[in-house]
Amino acid sequence: MNSNMEKPYVVGIDIGGTNSVFGIVDARGTIIASGSVKTQAYSTVEEYVDEVCKNLLPLIISQGGVEKIKGIGIGAPNGNYYSGTIEFAPNLPWKGIIPLAAMFEERLGIPTALTNDANAAAVGEMTYGAARGMKDFIMITLGTGVGSGIVINGQMVYGHDGFAGELGHVIVRRGTGRMCGCGRKGCLETYCSATGVARTARELLAARTDASLLRNISAENITSKDVYDAAVQGDKLAQEIFEFTGTLLGEALADFIAFSSPEAIVLFGGLAKSGDYIMKPIHKAMEDNLLNIYKGKTKLLVSELKDSDAAVLGASALAWELKDM
Amino acid sequence: MNSNMEKPYVVGIDIGGTNSVFGIVDARGTIIASGSVKTQAYSTVEEYVDEVCKNLLPLIISQGGVEKIKGIGIGAPNGNYYSGTIEFAPNLPWKGIIPLAAMFEERLGIPTALTNDANAAAVGEMTYGAARGMKDFIMITLGTGVGSGIVINGQMVYGHDGFAGELGHVIVRRGTGRMCGCGRKGCLETYCSATGVARTARELLAARTDASLLRNISAENITSKDVYDAAVQGDKLAQEIFEFTGTLLGEALADFIAFSSPEAIVLFGGLAKSGDYIMKPIHKAMEDNLLNIYKGKTKLLVSELKDSDAAVLGASALAWELKDM
């Protein structure tokens, strides 16, 4: 993976709406030191970067100093790989276009790459996880939203502007679909994210009268975790919610396969860990909806990275590709 | 494009269901000699290849012989780039898996590459046409069916199995869609191909009673050309057919952009030449349905290659990438 023994480590920084987590990672994907700061606690990005550096630098020094670090990789919402900027991220406190990669490079003197969270997850999976050795795969992250990172011919797909791979915003129910946070209707993520699952639960509970454990929870508080717990206890309605969610996702995956014919689709996030309740309908709908030439060829995999580590590992993996400054 | 003056030419062979056309092409995309044979006239592929070689070899010799030819590129239905084979092509007389590239290499001693027609069109557009210099674009061919060729990071997307890029078979009307020749329902090509336009005409004429020039033609004989001619004469129903077709295609293109964020989408084929009748609704529906970050960024272009030359040029362009044997 990295034969440069002079610089045996990379740094991964995952910037979330609540927490920013960072870690020093070796070539095998072990996080050997880590820390975090609250993203929202710093009203200017300068203060934020200063605080991250203040916490990160001691970790770097304890591993032998800046000269041991090959690069820094950052995963951030609305991250643009080409420019190293975060652009108009709705969930971050800093508005406009933020040249975050350049700011870290300047302060620490370490080459820095940045991309969005789902792309970072895909690079992480290719470097340390379920997609090791694959040249063509699609990563789908099932979280609060649905994100994606696409790898073709062994390269991340960034598109002409750095923003490729927003498969959570492909329209799966045209005209009649659910309102999405992006302002359009029927996006995949309104159905197949954790919030989409909760939304389906509320809709089904309101539209029907059959018994369900989910009726013990007030509708506005239902989470996808509640639906999973009910499904495990044999709740038919909860199981039907996963069936519905998985079927929609599988149908969408069949269309994605017609685009890039990947070796595998790798699912990441809490929903992907809901076992057969969701994986069986995804797989069935995917195969049922594939064009004949694609049937039975594309693997459906679950991420091999631990949830708690995946974001930092993904971000760090970006840094192995960097050239020295 | 090609600085190897020792081998200044390539050969392009386009294999269609009816005719096979071949030509010798220079680095500027000029077809300097060409010929054709009837594809269906040869019941074995050996006879077919012999006949093509018999017609092609004199052309090659007149340009200085085999040593002047850098390579042969073949565009063929169900062509697989990785294996150089045609696999189970329903419209060709030879069944099963045909190792066509190897057969030409053996007979002529010239390196040979093969891919499907739409991919060849994309390589042609990138080498000689509207996509010159572009690293990220999507080619959509609007003919009897709808084909596509996708270029990302300057490379054709073949996928893990050689069959990527079947965007004509993305589902645009789920559940309620038209029956497709592929056995599924609601594929893009059932609406946005030339046959899809004729189908829309028949449906609208049957469902409605308003006057139309198209009522002068017996329903089963209506072609997309008839619809175009009527639209030019101010026929409202014909114009509405293009509006409907363009809207569906534009919606689909917006989803394709969310995948690879291309610099341009290049449309090829008769329908793409229907001017504003189709281009305006395509462009409007595409922009209306794009996620905000993509709006106004992707060009919608029409192929710059002449219809009659495009297939041979596209196939020939593949050959510039070949290594010497």
From TrEMBL, chains A, B:
It comes from the Bacteria. Belongs to the ROK (NagC/XylR) family. This is ROK family protein (Putative glucokinase). InterPro entries: ATPase_NBD, ROK, ROK_cs. PANTHER family: BIFUNCTIONAL UDP-N-ACETYLGLUCOSAMINE 2-EPIMERASE_N-ACETYLMANNOSAMINE KINASE (PTHR18964:SF149), ROK (REPRESSOR, ORF, KINASE) FAMILY (PTHR18964). PROSITE patterns: ROK (PS01125). It comes from Bacteroides nordii CL02T12C05. Signal peptide: none annotated.
